[in-house]
Task: structure prediction
Amino acid sequence: MANTMEEFEALLNESFEMDTPSEGSVVKGKVIAIEAGQAIIDVGYKMEGRVDLKEFANPGEEAELAPGDTVEVFLRQVENARGEAVISREMARREEAWDRLEKAYADEERVDGAIFGRVKGGFTVDLGGAVAFLPGSQVDVRPVRDAGPLMGLKQPFQILKMDRRRGNIVVSRRAILEESRAEQRAEVIGNLTEGQEVDGVVKNITEYGAFVDLGGVDGLLHVTDMAWRRVNHPSEILTIGETIKVQVIKINKETHRISLGMKQLQDDPWNAVEAKYTMESTHTGRVTNITDYGAFVELEPGVEGLVHVSEMSWTKKNVHPGKIVSTSQEVEVMVLEIDSAKRRVSLGLKQTMRNPWEVFAEQFPEGTEVEGEVKNITEFGLFVGLEGDIDGMVHLSDLTWEGRGEDVIGDFRKGDIVKAKVAEVDVEKERISLSIKALDGDPFAETIGGTKRGSIITVEVTKIEEGGIEVDYEGMKSFIRRSDLSRDRAEQRPERFGVGDKVDVRVTNIDSKTRKLGLSIKAREIAEEKEAVEQFGSSDSGASLGDILGAALKGGDE
Result:
């Protein structure tokens, strides 16, 4: 019997040792009851302990625990003053959590957790027993001002760093978002095809275009693809938050960049340009842009033409286009050329107005008197401003009848108002020749009057020279050379004449260019002789030439 008693005691001790776990280890226990927010757990060998229910809760969730459940807890002390075991779910969980987290870290797997506190530079995250640090920069893709709505929510995190010895864990929420965004982006892009029409929301507007959200992925709508017409700034057409229809123009599979277009969904106005804008037809357009070389004129939305600086004005040459037209001005233009391949229309502004030289030629035919302001004085004449914003030129030779033009041009000043006669209008060369001297009539022509070549006129001797004599005919000077003084060589002596003598001479030449008369006494004598022969001479009478001349001269003297 004693034997049996000893055996029983030994067995009892054995079982006691077996069932008494050592302090500082994780043990299994059974939930006996739940009261006042605590679970009463039997950890074996008549040892019970209490643990707050919240220690059993997963991050961001309520604890799900019922009597009869088996749980693992950490035995801190076998018995305390109240005779209870001091147990902790928290510490058991921490040990358990570290094992689990180290495996997840090694396998690069996500872990669930909940943000529960704010610390300097970031937040604290409960990873189901282990506390991790979430840096502020790792909360979201974009900086987050208020993390309040994220607190206490169960969500996935990526472990960036772990140090069990120091108890350090650093996690990121951003890495997960970026990954899911990349997946979402890849999925959205995978569903898009070039040429497809989609709806998008305008997210951002820049100088060169707009970013459009196509449902998790952004596409760029360039300003030149918004409309067929010229768009100076995207804000003219779009507003942020607006939903628009766009076409996918291009998808870059490597960079995942998507190019979008709006105008591609509208008819290209260029398809009808040639039929609508025939050569030399005139149209009203609006000036959209001015450059050094011309002005762009919008004929209709999407169709613009260039008026080259040389086609802007008949009269304003070498002037900046901005001095002739202004932006937004309505102008009438003529179609000069269309190049559909280059989508270019050449327009003319001056062609819609009459050529001012043609108009001037009609209004002021040659010989008409005009008046204008001296605009410029050059070494070869005066430029005079005329009607129609054009200039006429008075050449030096057209300034005066008397003397040289060089001598009188100094009498004129810029700004003087002068009268002149239209001498010639050359529309092709855009040139108008004027004459100031023509206003007084031509004194040469007036003096000569009805005088023709061969006329006999009476002149007065004004000067005797060795080579001949100077004579005056109604205020006009002429010179008779020695050889023209007589038909008789012996009589060709200038001394034979005296100043003031009246002499009959024959007009041999009228030169209106040099404004000179050619005169000869000799020619008069020869003409008279010929006439006398015709009048008095006859081959039948047998009279000699001397008799005839004598009779003719006698008749002349009587």
